[in-house]
Specification:
The protein is of the alpha/beta class. The chain contains 5 helices and 7 strands; from the N terminus they run βββαββαβαβαα.
Length: 132
C-alpha cells in the first residue's frame, strides 16, 4: 500500500513516499491528494522529501514533483529532495531538473542543508545538486 509518512527531525519536516516503485500516472487521485495535503499541512519552514522507495518516474511523476515544489514555494517553505535511486537521479539530470530541484544524497545532508538557510528566497532561487 502506498503511503505518505511525515515526521519532524531537527526542525525539518520529512515527507516519505513509501512503497512507491513507480511515480507515474498510476497513482490514485487520493494518493496525490495525500501528498499535497502533507505539503499544505507542513508545520515547519523547512522540509525534505524522501524518494528512496521511488524506482521509476514518468512524465506524470515529474509533474507531481514539480507540483510538490510549487506548493512548498507558495508557502515559502524551503525543501530538498533526498534518497534518490540512481535511475531517478539520472532521469532528473538528463532533463536538467537537477538544476530545478535541490537534490542531496541522504537525510543528514538534507537536514543540514534545509536547516542551514534562514532566508527562504535565497534558498529557493539556488538549486544545488550534491549527488553524483
Amino acid at each position: 500500500m502506498q503511503t505518505v509518512k511525515t515526521r519532524q527531525e531537527a526542525g525539518v519536516q520529512i515527507l516519505t513516499l513509501e512503497n512507491l516503485p513507480a511515480l507515474s500516472d498510476r497513482q490514485s487521485d487520493e494518493y496525490r491528494a495525500a501528498i499535497y495535503r502533507a505539503v499544505e499541512e507542513c508545520p515547519t519552514p523547512t522540509a525534505a522529501v524522501d524518494l528512496a522507495d521511488v524506482g521509476i518516474v514518468t512524465s506524470s511523476g515529474v509533474a507531481l514533483l514539480i507540483g510538490i515544489k510549487r506548493r512548498f514555494e507558495d508557502r515559502k517553505i524551503q525543501f530538498v529532495l533526498f534518497g534518490l535511486q540512481p535511475y531517478l537521479n539520472d532521469v532528473l539530470s538528463v532533463m536538467k531538473l537537477d538544476k530545478f530541484f535541490t537534490i542531496v544524497p541522504d537525510l543528514p545532508t538534507a537536514i543540514k542543508l534545509a536547516g542551514a538557510s534562514t532566508t527562504p528566497p535565497d534558498f529557493l532561487d539556488t538549486a544545488t545538486s550534491l549527488s553524483s
